[in-house]
C-alpha cells in the first residue's frame, strides 16, 4: 500500500514537473523568439537611421560637377590664357605672329585639370624640317620621361595588370586587315566560371552578330587559385577571350570595364562603336544594327555618344547591410552622376579612346556603370536614355519585338528561350 502510494506520488510529481518544464520552455522559447525579432528590428532601424544620417552628411552633387566636369574648368583656364595674351604681344620691337598650332591644355590635363602642381615642363626648339629628330626624341628619352614619376604626375589610381589573353587580330580580320570600317565591336563582361553562359551566347545571338560582321569578345578576370588551363583551352578553341590577371570578382568589375576600354581603343580603332554587355543579357543583333546605323549618321555632328538605360539622380546606398553599401569615405556626394546600366550600353569609339586615357585618373568605384558615368561627366558627355535597353525580364518577354537588349538575371536558359521565341515569331511572320 505504502509502496503503491509512493509510486503514485512520485509519478504525479514527475509528471507535474515535466508539465511545468514543458510549459515554461514553450513560454521561454516564444519569449526568446520575440526578443530576437525585436532586437533584429531595432538593429535594422538603427542601421537605416545611420544610413539617413550618413546621407545627410554627404556633399551636394553639384559640387562634384563643378570639381570634375572638364569643360567648365578648361573654359576658365583658356580665358585666363587669353587674358594674358596682350601682355605678351605689346612689345613694339617684335611683330605679332599668329599661332598655327597652340595646344593650350597639355599642362592643364597633366596637372589633373589644374588641381596639382607640375614639377616642370620641357620645351624643345626644333626646325620645321627636322621630323626625324622629333621622331627619335619621341621614341627615346621623351618616352622614358613620360613613363617616369617626374613627368607623369597624374599617377594612376589603379594597379597595372598583365594580359593573360589578348586577341589582337579579332577586329583586323573582320575588317579585312583594317581596310574597312567596322560598324561595332561587342565586349561581353563574363565571370571566369560562366562557361555555360558563354556557350549559350555563342550558339544564339552571337552567331547572328558574326553574320552582320560585328566581332564579339568576352572580358574575363582570373581564377583565385591561379589555374587557368580551362580558359587557355577555351581561348585556343574560340579565340575571343580577353583576360587579365586580376581576380574575377563582382567588386573587380570596374577593372574588367577598364580592360575593355583599353583593348578596344588599342586593337579595334576601326570600329565606329563599342557595345558593352553582360553575359546574362539577351541581345537582338538586327535591332542593334539598326540603332548603330542611325547613330553612325550622327557621328559627324555628335562624335561622343553614350546610349543605354540611363539612371539620373540615383543615390548611393548608405545602409550597412546592403550589398551596394557605399561609405562617405568612398563616395562623399549625395548622388551618382547620370550613368547607363552596366549590362548593356553603346559608346562611340571617339569617346572610348578618351575614356581609356581618362580611366587611370579617376578613383576606383566598384560599380562599373557608375565609373563609366564619372568618365562621361569628366568628359562633359551626357548619356542618352533608350527604353529598348530593358532591365526587366518580364517587360522583355512582353515587348520582345522591340528589345535591343534584355537582362535575364543570371539565367542562360532565359537567353536561349528569348532567342528561340524570337526566331519562332519571325518564322510565323514570314509564313
Which overall shape is indicated by the principal axes computed on the Cα atoms? globular
Structural class: alpha/beta
**What is the number of beta strands?**
11
Distance from N terminus to C terminus (CA atoms, Å) equals: 99 Å
The low-pLDDT segments are 1-11, 71-91, 145-155
In spatial order, strands of the major sheet run 1-4-3-2-5-8-7-9
Helix content: 40-55%
Mean pLDDT equals 79
Main sheet, how many strands, which sense, barrel? 8 strands, mixed
Bin the strand percentage.
5-15%
Please give the radius of gyration in angstroms. Answer: 30 Å
Keywords: Glycoprotein, Glycosyltransferase, Golgi apparatus, Membrane, Signal-anchor, Transferase, Transmembrane, Transmembrane helix
GO cellular component, one term: Golgi membrane
EC number: 2.4.1.-
Membrane topology: Single-pass type II membrane protein
Written account of the structure:
The chain is an alpha/beta fold. It has two domains: 57 residues; 268 residues, Spore Coat Polysaccharide Biosynthesis Protein SpsA, Chain A (Alpha-Beta Complex). Helix content is 49%, strand content 14%. It contains 16 helices and eleven strands. The chain has an eight-stranded mixed β-sheet, sandwiched between helices. Strands 6-11-10 form a three-stranded mixed β-sheet. Helix 10 links the parallel strand 3 and strand 4. Helix 11 packs across helix 14. It is globular. The N terminus is likely disordered. Its EC number is 2.4.1.-. Keywords: Glycoprotein, Glycosyltransferase, Golgi apparatus, Membrane, Signal-anchor, Transferase, Transmembrane, Transmembrane helix. InterPro entries: Glyco_trans_31.
Amino acid at each position: 500500500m505504502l509502496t503503491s502510494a509512493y509510486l503514485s506520488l512520485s509519478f504525479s510529481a514527475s509528471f507535474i514537473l515535466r508539465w511545468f518544464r514543458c510549459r515554461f520552455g514553450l513560454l521561454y522559447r516564444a519569449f526568446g523568439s520575440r526578443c530576437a525579432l525585436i532586437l533584429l528590428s531595432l538593429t535594422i532601424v538603427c542601421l537605416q537611421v545611420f544610413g539617413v544620417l550618413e546621407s545627410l552628411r554627404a556633399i551636394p552633387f553639384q559640387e562634384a560637377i563643378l570639381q570634375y566636369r572638364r569643360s567648365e574648368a578648361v573654359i576658365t583656364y583658356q580665358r585666363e590664357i587669353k587674358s594674358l595674351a596682350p601682355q605678351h604681344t605689346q612689345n613694339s620691337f617684335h611683330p605679332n605672329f599668329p599661332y598655327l598650332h597652340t595646344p593650350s591644355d597639355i599642362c592643364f590635363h597633366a596637372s589633373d585639370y589644374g588641381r596639382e602642381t607640375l614639377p616642370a615642363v620641357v620645351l624643345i626648339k626644333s626646325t620645321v624640317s627636322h621630323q626625324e629628330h622629333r621622331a627619335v626624341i619621341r621614341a627615346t628619352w621623351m618616352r622614358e620621361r613620360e613613363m617616369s614619376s617626374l613627368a607623369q604626375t597624374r599617377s594612376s589610381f589603379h594597379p597595372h595588370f598583365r594580359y593573360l589573353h589578348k586577341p589582337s587580330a579579332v577586329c583586323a580580320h573582320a575588317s579585312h586587315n583594317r581596310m574597312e570600317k567596322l560598324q561595332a565591336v561587342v565586349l561581353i563582361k563574363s565571370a571566369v566560371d560562366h562557361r555555360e553562359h558563354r556557350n549559350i551566347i555563342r550558339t544564339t545571338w552571337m552567331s547572328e552578330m558574326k553574320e552582320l560582321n560585328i566581332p564579339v569578345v568576352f572580358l574575363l578576370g582570373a581564377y583565385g587559385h591561379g589555374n587557368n588551363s580551362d580558359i587557355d583551352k577555351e581561348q585556343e578553341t574560340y579565340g575571343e577571350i580577353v583576360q587579365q590577371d586580376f581576380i574575377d570578382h563582382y567588386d573587380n568589375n570596374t577593372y574588367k570595364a577598364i580592360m575593355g576600354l583599353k583593348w578596344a581603343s588599342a586593337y579595334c580603332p576601326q570600329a565606329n562603336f563599342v557595345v558593352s554587355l553582360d553575359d546574362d543579357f539577351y541581345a537582338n543583333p538586327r535591332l542593334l544594327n539598326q540603332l548603330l546605323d542611325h547613330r553612325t549618321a550622327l557621328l559627324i555632328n555628335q562624335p561622343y555618344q553614350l546610349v543605354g538605360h540611363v539612371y539620373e539622380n540615383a543615390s548611393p546606398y548608405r545602409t550597412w547591410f546592403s550589398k551596394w553599401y557605399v561609405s562617405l569615405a568612398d563616395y562623399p556626394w549625395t548622388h551618382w552622376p547620370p550613368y547607363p546600366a552596366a549590362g548593356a550600353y553603346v559608346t562611340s569609339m571617339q569617346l572610348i579612346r578618351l575614356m581609356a586615357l581618362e580611366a587611370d585618373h579617376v578613383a576606383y568605384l566598384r560599380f562599373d556603370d557608375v565609373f563609366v558615368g564619372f568618365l562621361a561627366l569628366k568628359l562633359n558627355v551626357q548619356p542618352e536614355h533608350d527604353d529598348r535597353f530593358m532591365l526587366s525580364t518580364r517587360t522583355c518577354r512582353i515587348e520582345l519585338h522591340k528589345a535591343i537588349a534584355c537582362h535575364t538575371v543570371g539565367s542562360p536558359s532565359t537567353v536561349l528561350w528569348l532567342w528561340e521565341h524570337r526566331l519562332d515569331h519571325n518564322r510565323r511572320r514570314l509564313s
